[in-house]
Write a structure and sequence with these properties.
Blueprint: H1 2-30, E1 49-51, H2 54-57, E2 61-64, E3 66-67, E4 71-82, E5 87-90, E6 96-99, E7 108-109, E8 114-119, H3 121-152, H4 158-184, H5 189-192, E9 201-205, E10 210-215, E11 222-223, E12 231-234, E13 238-246, E14 258-263, E15 271-282, E16 288-296, E17 307-315, E18 322-325, E19 330-332, E20 335-343, E21 346-355, E22 361-366, E23 373-377, H6 379-387
Antiparallel strand pairs: 1-21, 2-23, 3-18, 4-13, 4-17, 5-12, 6-8, 6-11, 7-10, 8-9, 10-12, 13-16, 14-15, 14-17, 15-16, 18-22, 19-20, 20-21, 21-22
């Protein structure tokens, strides 16, 4: 009896479970299959195509992607400065009074020309020492000659002869010292021998040819022998341009590299320049280093303080790379694109990868093939056509 009841219970449970299993099977059969990894990507990932009619084609410019030239332009901005190797600051060698001042700011002077005359007691004393030492030398020479003659006739002792020789050597040394002082003050041998005619007046001459750029003295002014410049003369036939060069370009530039310099004042004029020195320190804020150019200055048109732009021709880092005009490339959602012609009036948006470059062209490292025809002017028109539903 008990065994019969157990068998009946098991059979009833199975019968009750069968509809539920069937329902689950039917539900599984009616539910859609899950999407697989091989499903097509969204249409947005495909290159968009844009069609233009003949009237619209006339408004755009198409050109083939071209290989980069052997040289690349690096631009650096800077300012004009005096060529410090060709600047003379006139100091007063002694204290005195300025007289006969002959130059003013802006005047051109030749090397050796007289700038002004300095009247000084120190000059007078130096000339007097030179005259006195010369007289002492003449007397010592006569005394020595006479003593030597007396010694030869046994009328003077050897001690007297040696004393005369010693006095003569001292006199010659004093003359040499006095002449050297006058040479330091700018007097030559002829002038130094003039003695009294020179009095206390010392002419100050221009050490180089150039232009007077600064004057801090006037006629009759008393000056001291300190470090304050009385006049500044600059040879402006060449100037320096101090420019900033980015850290990333330092390895491509070396002293001696030629450059072309332009200014806002003379936009159509180009000045020849040469890299003379590259700074040893990189600014932590701007990531630039100083670079010095020596620039020829015909006509003295470059003036200190002017802003300049220097262009250097350097070998390209990716010879043979394709380039496009910068205005042919547009950026959207962090990606770079260009429109490539696929047929008459048909264009496809192509994603490309670009590399930093200088000038008005950009290097393309991926996405284009040689001679692909790209819209170089009129990109905004194609983007507008793509946005209003003219893409296919």
């Amino acid at each position: 009896m008990t065994r019969a009841i157990r068998i009946f219970s098991v059979a009833a449970a199975c019968a009750a479970a069968m509809p539920l299993t069937a329902c689950r099977h039917d539900a599984a059969a009616e539910s859609p299959a899950p999407a697989t990894a091989t499903a097509d990507p969204p249409a947005a990932q495909h290159d968009a195509r844009v069609h233009l009619d003949d009237a619209q084609l006339a408004k755009i410019t198409i050109e083939p992607a071209s290989a980069a030239s052997g040289d690349e332009v690096i631009r650096a901005t800077g300012t004009v400065e005096f060529n410090a190797d060709r600047v003379a600051r006139i100091l007063s060698p002694v204290a005195g009074q300025v007289q006969d001042l002959r130059v003013n700011v802006g005047d051109d002077v030749k090397q050796g020309s007289t700038l002004f005359v300095l009247s000084s007691r120190e000059v007078a004393a130096a000339i007097a020492d030179r005259v006195a030492s010369q007289k002492d030398l003449e007397l010592s020479e006569k005394t020595y000659a006479m003593t030597q003659d007396l010694f030869a006739h046994e009328a003077a002792s050897r001690m007297a002869l040696q004393q005369a020789e010693n006095d003569l050597a001292k006199a010659r040394a004093k003359v040499a010292q006095a002449e050297e002082v006058l040479h330091v003050l700018g007097f030559d041998d002829t002038a130094a021998g003039g003695g009294r005619a020179l009095a206390s007046r010392m002419p100050i001459h221009a050490p180089i040819s150039g232009t007077v750029t600064e004057r801090t003295i006037t006629n009759g002014q008393f000056v001291g022998n300190d470090s304050n410049a009385l006049l500044t003369i600059a040879d402006l036939s060449t100037v320096w341009v101090q420019a900033d060069i980015f850290e990333r370009d330092l390895h491509r530039i070396a002293a001696g590299l030629k450059a072309d310099v332009t200014t806002a004042a003379y936009p159509s004029d180009h000045f020849s320049a040469t890299v003379a020195r590259i700074g040893t320190v990189v600014d932590a804020q701007t990531r630039t280093a100083k670079m010095r150019f020596v620039v020829a200055n015909p006509g003295l048109r470059l003036k200190p303080g002017m802003f300049t732009t220097a262009e250097l021709q350097v070998p390209t880092e990716s010879p043979g790379a394709l380039t496009l005009p910068m205005k042919a490339v547009f950026v959207e959602n962090g990606h770079s694109y260009a429109y490539v012609e696929s047929g008459h009036g048909m264009f496809v948006r192509r994603e490309i990868e670009t590399q930093p470059s200088s000038g008005d062209r950009v290097r393309v490292s991926r996405g284009l093939a040689p001679n692909d025809r790209v819209v170089s002017d009129g990109v905004l028109l194609l983007r507008a056509r793509e946005s209003d539903g003219s893409s296919q």
